[in-house]
Amino acid sequence: MSKKSIFLLIASVVMLSFFTPVFANLLLNPDFEAWTNFRQPSEWTVEDTVYAKIYKESTRVFHGNYAVKMQRFQIGTGNNKGIFQRVAIPGRGRYIASVRFYRNNDSVLGGLTITWRNANAGFISSWPVLYTDTILPSWQVVRKAAITDTAPTGAVYADFIIRTYGRGAPTPSPSGGTLFVDSVSFGAVTAIEEIGNSISANPLNLEVKPNPFSNTARINFSVNPADFGAVKIYDATGNLVRTIRSIGQAGSSYTTTWDGRNERGILSAPGVYFIVLETKQGQSQALKTMFLR
What is the reported pTM? Predict the structure, then answer.
């Protein structure tokens, strides 16, 4: 398929998706690649150096060269500290927030919350804290997808806050525990329910689940295996990111997956991508998906 054809196919999907805006990460230095010194990630505020210590990490990294190592020092509940970044928000649209945590100690949890502030930086409200689960040790995504929630009236700024928390058992929770943090994102998505709409005729029954996705997208479709050509992933500018030629069967349909990586195994940037199914008979079908990190 030519680059011109790809642009036409992408254009048709975008038009029939009501011009859904591209997800824009409002956070600066979201992968923690820039540091003022080994205790201070650029663009981020360290809340406290007594209850939680922050370090530049180069070994336990999810993406890029560096991550944040957070060590918890508070005993019991309260005094939960970490890092935050205050950003100006574009309006009262719906928002998505996500962070990658790695836990290697059972006495600590990672937590994510958003605090909304007015034009004078005064407190308005906060999201409930979203915590890591109890799986050890692994990278895991903590994400808030605000499908119905919007920024409150009067909100001009948002604090994206990442903190350490005690497990709550035994009581009081002992001091200690280490978290690693990487690949964070926060931004407005004002029409997220439209993402995944395709051109109205869908003879190949192409679907992507979940959508948006942060780990792996499952791509389902109906096609004679002998007619299957490839599943190709393009970015929003029409550049080919990945070609997938292996499929498996799931019931009466066929399936494959995409983990957000390009042909070289490098994790792609968060944003909008287009899944294009091609057959050997010249048919093609496209869907729009959003990749979150």
Answer: 0.60
